Queue: 4 jobs
Job 1
Amino acid sequence: MDRRAATKESRTATHAQAGGDAGQALVVERLRKTYPGTVAVDDVSFTVEEGEIFGILGPNGAGKTTTVECVIGLRTPDSGTICVMGFDPGVDRDQVHAIVGAQLQTSALQPRLRVAEILDLYRSFYRDPADPGELLDALGLREKRSAYYKSLSGGQKQRVSLALALVGRPKIAILDEMTTGLDPQARRDTWELIEGVRDRGVTVVLVTHYMDEAERLCDRVALVDEGRIVALDTPTALAEQAGGGKRVRFVPSHPFDDRLLTELPEVTGLKRSGHHVLVNGKDDLVNTVILTLAGAGVTANEVEVQSATLEDAFVKLTGRHLHEDEEGAPR
């Protein structure tokens, strides 16, 4: 287990040990929002604990963005209740604005404004804003202070959006599809920035349709499909619920009888595809398979080890993959 995974596991365990004592940053109960002919959000309920990164994961059109727009008061739900650190976004708009910073999926900034000018404009909206120089340093934008917004790369524009979400010193940051359209390196850099936001003491609600992003960052994840939450738990627990267990794929050095492995208690299935053998199972599957093969004089070459993922959980719960999107569906 790498350092980041260990840190996240420790943080998740702390939340579990705290039980009901941990403060609730956000409580959503039976939220419903419809548009003509479409139910965008259907009876959604969840809580977000202070200090965690809470993920809302689902395909495009699942209702994720509509949900968070209701949370921050940009949309009015048809029914249900929302409590943001004790405030109702439909009634206490100023109080919610003061404690919530948001980076939304779509935003429009003047292309001919400089980065510093944009930050100064937004900090003027708050009574006790963050120091812009400190934010620029923390987000790697110091050298772009005088650059026009239109000249920035996609990753740099996302950093500016994150700076604007943090300039009011929020207690909660809502980040909607932060890494859409970014190249792999920019995505990884953005992930580190999001972890840095949490390390500053900010509770993060992360909206994404990227399974690997949710697995890497989130303490808990709500899987959303067609406006409803189909499951909510830690990424590890959700993957285990998928029943996919563990998988090991390899090329044997010599032919062997399938029963050599299928009769092992750790093995639940075996398939062959050309020269490759794919074994499904549980517990200490990998070591058991390799040692059993070695005992029979067979070497496992080109070994690939896989575990059940959030994608597996989503497929099991909904019958389709995360990226089977329909154009024009509600966000």
Job 2
Amino acid sequence: MSVAKFKGTSIIGLVVALLLLGIGIAVNLLPLPNTSIWRVLFGVSTLNFTLRATVPLALGAMAGILCERTGIINIGIEGMMLAGAFAGFVVKVGTNDWPLMLSLLAGVTAALAAGALMGFIHALFSIKFKMDQIISGTFLIILALGLTSYLFNPDWVAEGKFSPIRIPLLADIPVIGEVFFDNPPITYTALILVALLHVGLFHTKWGLRSRAAGEHPRAADTLGVDVNFYRYLNTTLGGMVAGLAGGFLVLEAVGQFQEGMTAGRGFISLAAMIFGNWMPFGALGAASLFGYTQGVQNALLLAGVVNIPRHFISMLPYVVTVVVVAGFVGRVRPPAAEGKVYETEASLE
């Protein structure tokens, strides 16, 4: 992993995430009383909740990176997540009488398919019909909110969700093992996906061509790269990853569907992507920071150690998101051709 692949705020995001983890390890290994504020802020339960909150944000950020690295702006991640969550829920309900694991895998497949469809629609509007990409992404959000609210039946109940899979030996490591190596499968998949996306973007032909499509599409076209093909491909793949984030909420985190259950996670994912400078590991670090604010929110509400109205505590993740984006957005540089329709030489003649 080359240092050259990290720059600007992506390094800050990684450093902050590692610092939080380091403090958490130290606090949990020291003989502090359970009522200590340090235990509340950095206890194993807070770190576990941080990871659960980080997973959908990291997946959403990876979805954004896949799209935007090829030049397609994607603010529709929220809609893709919601569509994936609803599709996974509907299929899970419809297969409740199947063996649990088979039913859950069917739900994951439906979430991936719904996200892929939303991603393809976004690519179609952006590339073929040359629609403003911000408007196209907004349309996806409104479409997902409207359809899921209209089709949702509150009497539907999904039975069961993914259970943790304990990894022998690694799970016995103090603190780290409890947090990282005793989790359900989508959590492991999300962490592995970050590494795979980094390798794919910076060490494969697909990654080079994808980045070229987002930085210098004319030059890439001159060298024989089908720019719009890679934009279609990556935007559809990005939709699948966002759909998986929605599937995580239903099939692994909550176990049921609720109207509007993504609750702004798609927008926080965009903030993580920007703060991470469109780098997979940088975005993961930023997602961890935002996930930690949700973990702290949960810990403070459960512990009742502060005399602040719960509504103000619940605002914490969103306030941190706004502050981070406002403070760092001017220090990052998106792909040069982001949001620009590309027309081949043949179509211009």
Job 3
Amino acid sequence: MIEIQPIRKPLDATITVPGSKSYTNRALLVAAMARGVSTLTGALFSDDTRYMSASLRKLGVEIDADEKQTTFNVHGNGGSIPVSGAELYIGNSGTTSRSLTAYVSLGHGKFVIDGDEPMRHGRPIFDLLGALRQIGVSARSQFENGHLPVIVEANGLTGGKTRLDVSKSSQFLTALLLIAPCAKNDMEIEVVGAREMPYIDITLAVMEAFGGQVINEGYKYFQIESGQQYQPRIYNIEPDASNASYFFGAAALTGGRVTVQHLHLDSAQGDVQFLNILEQMGCQITVSDAGITVTGPRQLKGIDVDMRAISDTSLTLAAIAPFADSKVTIRNIEHTRWQETDRIHAMVTELRKLGVPVVEHRDGLEISPAPITPAAIDTYEDHRMAMAFALVGLKVPGIRINDPECVSKTFPNYFEAFEELYT
């Protein structure tokens, strides 16, 4: 447990946020499929990226890691998997589990992907398995419940046409897109259940950087020609916009100023759009070559917002919402019920523990302003619950975060970086 101390002076801080998890894990996998050595700089070293790199090593990919220099050197195998089978453990990393389930289809042999209890019961993979089977991959859930463990009996990836439901996660589509250039034949993916999918923009950006070409027809249909070869390169990972949101939220909440270095509005990361929400709530946004600065207002305004495209930041908004001048409504995030935890219910439960009136909906929640009752916040093994609700403690004494170590999933030194807000 850690207790957050309120800020006693005007907040004015400059923060460096680690590299993007989404970019790092995609780049690790694409570099593994390139032929030759790629260097990933500014990479994230966290639970999720360690699970990815450790799994790739078990699959025959040589990876040299330098955590102090935030660098991976990946010796790619040109789209082949040299081992004849492996048992892979991916913790609670959804990106890793879905991407590796597709990736091992390039090999020949039996591959088992397993993870922590939340992955075994809460985070679905059924739709991805169905899409893989449509293109001839023997892929199934061991217990036939649509979750991990997954067994793939691979015999190379033929390619062809498949149809995929992404209503529960765009990670299913990412997994198929990343491996498609290595298929024996062209791949065509028809997508259903899609709306805005900013994480697919990240996927396409990484593929393109390594020489992968994709025809994208309105995120409804994708065509990828076979015979492509990812090219090794030096690739810089930009800061994680989702994790930057907590420091932007700190400025918004305290009426102070925070700059996140090296992050820019033209990022493919959809979560930079959280800044638009803060601007509507009264914050001032300043962009420079150094990064992005948020200056908070004297009083935050209420807002009614669709957050489907930037749902990871819905927890940040929920944490600062009780301090607004009127109700905050968060809509269209039903898919977050199948993430690290049921995030809608978790947000509702912990806000009510703080004395905040909340209405829970199937796809969102309504948060009314209220005085805060000090409490210990449960985090549900969810890094974003811990990071977001720590913000409340900047304004109110007595806020304690249970299991703060869960931030190691994507931001191991989060609370050290949080301390920089006080200096």
Job 4
Amino acid sequence: MDIQLKRGLLEICVLAAIKNEDSYGYKIIKDMKPYVSMSESTLYPILRRLENASCLTVCPVEHDGRLRKYYHITELGLDRIKDFAEEWEEIMSIYNYIMGKE
């Protein structure tokens, strides 16, 4: 798969994983596991990119004597999911064309 396409899809998946509740790295990976396999070495750069793009915020919380980073989706992150959903129809049209289904 094209690396840029995969990168964009993984970013949307991460945003979707925290859409309904704040979460932390290990739980994000666990929640996504039935749908997409992702390692910590893939997840954390995505989280940093999304934070830098103001799609999420980070809040450190103490848990068992250690700080755990909880990620919270922002309005910009929610908009990004919405934009993806609107573009999905065009993506499926391209897929159908490539697969000869139209």
